[in-house]
Specification:
Shape: elongated
CATH architecture of the largest domain: Beta Barrel
Radius of gyration: 25 Å
Helix content: 10-25%
Number of domains: 2
Order of helices and strands: HEHEEEEEEEEHHEEEEE
Number of strands: 14
Number of helices: 4
CATH class of the largest domain: Mainly Beta
């Protein structure tokens, strides 16, 4: 390889390196974000920046209006009184609910509100045996007034097409495997992502005065 060819290759390589550096800088400037805690995100010095903040959804802090989900998050390992307001215009997942871990990526505006463009929720699956759990048919066979408000466990499968999000008062319908009897289930928490149509569940809660089951905990049934 002669000296002139070497110089040309050196120049071309230098140009390629410069282009790569520019592309990386532009990409970081447009799509990069700061990974912050809730406490850090509350400081004005971080306003008007792209951020990612993880936290636990404050119980009953959420609302949905005109397709926009609003909620607050806090750091369970820090001061629970420090809460960050988040707004999200995407669809509300069935895995969103009270106390769920939410990973929120977006723009922290001048008012200190996180305008979330990407929302990921984590709700680990729990498993429980059906010991002491009633079937839907057994539960409905009792007088509603006799069971109203009493702690109960009921087991069955999720009815296909019945799964909803926190926007829906009824989160799912529990189906009796043998008789086909149905039980509407109310729940303000997050459904594990493994809960699908016909998933076997064990649900803890109580009957309300309208014969619906107000769940406090939903677990997958151990086989």
């Amino acid at each position: 390889m002669n000296a002139q060819l070497k110089r040309r290759l050196f120049v071309v390589s230098g140009i390629i390196v410069v282009v790569v550096v520019i592309v990386l800088a532009v990409t970081a400037g447009t799509s990069g974000y700061q990974n912050l805690t809730v406490a850090q995100a509350l400081k004005p010095e971080h306003y008007n920046t792209r951020v990612q903040v993880s936290g636990q959804v404050v119980t009953d802090s959420y609302s949905v209006e005109a397709g926009t989900l609003s909620f607050a998050i806090f750091d369970p390992n820090s001061n629970s009184q420090e809460q960050l307001l988040v707004v999200y215009k995407g669809g509300v997942s069935a895995t969103f609910g009270n106390q769920v871990t939410a990973i929120c990526t977006g723009y922290l505006n001048a008012e200190g509100i996180l305008e979330c463009s990407d929302l990921v929720t984590k709700c680990p699956s729990k498993y429980e045996t059906a010991t002491d759990a009633l079937t839907v048919s057994q539960l409905l066979g009792y007088s509603a007034s006799a069971l109203e408000g009493k702690p109960l466990k009921v087991t069955g499968r999720t009815k296909p097409g019945s799964l909803g999000s926190v926007e829906d008062r009824v989160r799912l319908v529990l189906l009796d495997e043998a008789s086909g009897a149905e039980l509407p289930v109310l729940f303000a928490g997050a459904l594990p992502e493994t809960v699908k149509d016909t998933t076997l569940l064990v649900i803890t809660g109580s009957l309300d005065q309208n014969g619906r089951f107000e769940a406090t905990d939903i677990a997958l049934r151990e086989e």
